[in-house]
Amino acid sequence: MTASIPLPQQASPHLPPVQAPAGPAPLPAARAHLGHAIASEWTKIRTVRSTVWTLVMMFVLTVGIGLLFAVSVSGDDYVGMPLLAGGFFGLMLGQICVITLGVLVISSEYSTGMMRTTLTACPRRGRVLTAKAIVFFLLSFLMTFAACVPTALIQSALLSDQSVPEYAWDDVAMSESIERGELVATTGQVVGATVGAALYVSVLGLLALAVGALLRHSAGAITTMLGIVLLPLLAGLFLVGESLETAREKLIEYSPLNGLASLFDIPIMGDEPNGGWSLLGLLAVITVAVLIAAYAKLNSTDA
Fold this sequence. Notes:
By secondary structure, this protein is mainly α. It has ten helices and two strands, in the order H-H-H-H-H-E-E-H-H-H-H-H.
């Protein structure tokens, strides 16, 4: 008896082919844009402890020194300055905190090597610097404005009842600040002492960020910025003699400290109307030029 061997059956041409079970379709990759870079920089800057302490110190210096000034002269009849001028003395020191933070925002990433990771995650280097500039400028402006407003309110509350003697009524610089023999704050002075001062310090901090991107060294960039802020005024004060008078006046007039003081209507040198806003515009132009140089260096060199 012969065993039969089963032959392999051929698949019917009418049956559909067997397909492997389909898995989940891959999600399309989201295209990165500037908003992602801004969100990343905001996360970094708000989670760093030095950011909080630096901004708190700026707020305490600005408001605290402004309060001390107002309390110290509140019993006097006339101090010879506009009503809100006392806010300048606190912000003069508070701006150093903003300058320091502007440098650290970018130089700290170079010192720790974090910049390599940042540029790996976002290969478009210009986008990284743009995001840092936007986040830092908005943060510094809002915090400086938040410090200038209560300082202005303190000055107004403690010094608004000052009686101005008649001999000062003819003072052109103070004429707009005197109403019915009492010291008042005009709309222009309020805007200059709050919005203008906050813009000036924020742009100065943005310049510090650009210098930090160029030098990539925290101590060197901070020292450079302190020199930019302080040296023109100090050098001008030590230039004596008639032959150096023009140079002395120009150094003091265009110094960053004079620009900030002019926004409080107490210019160290020069009496041009709206001189503080003109110097703010000049500072903005210089900052843009240094930022362009920082963009060029970031794109042409390794992290």
